[in-house]
Amino acid sequence: MTYIINEYQTNNGTTAIVTPVTKTDLNEAESVFHSKLASAAISAVEIHAVTLETEEGQTLRNECYKHIAQ
């Protein structure tokens, strides 16, 4: 099974998709997922999301941080 970690960064209504990371081991994939989330938690990106998916398109985990200026 291949696991894909996608990262999305949205500022001013424009979303960038960071180059996906793939892993064949679920524990390694979850490690990458959490590492990206650790960075997203403190980033200046307005909406910073990370997903962990299977090669079949099933979403296993997803999380999003919002840092929208008031």
Describe it.
There is one protein chain. By secondary structure, the protein is an alpha+beta fold. It has one domain. It has 1 helix and 4 strands. A hairpin with a 2-residue loop joins strand 1 and strand 2.
Write a brief structural summary.
This protein has one helix at 26-42, and strands at residues 3-11, 14-23, 47-54, 59-66. It is α+β, with helices and mostly antiparallel strands and 70 residues long. It has a 4-stranded antiparallel β-sheet, with helices on one face.
**Which strand order spans the largest sheet, edge to edge or round the barrel?**
2-1-3-4
Globular, elongated, flat, extended or rod-shaped: what is the shape?
elongated
- What's the number of helices? 1
Rg over CA atoms, rounded to whole Å, is: 12 Å
What are the key terms here?
70 residues; four-stranded antiparallel β-sheet; 1 helix; 24% helix; elongated
Please render the helix and strand layout as text.
Blueprint: E1 3-11, E2 14-23, H1 26-42, E3 47-54, E4 59-66
Antiparallel strand pairs: 1-2, 1-3, 3-4
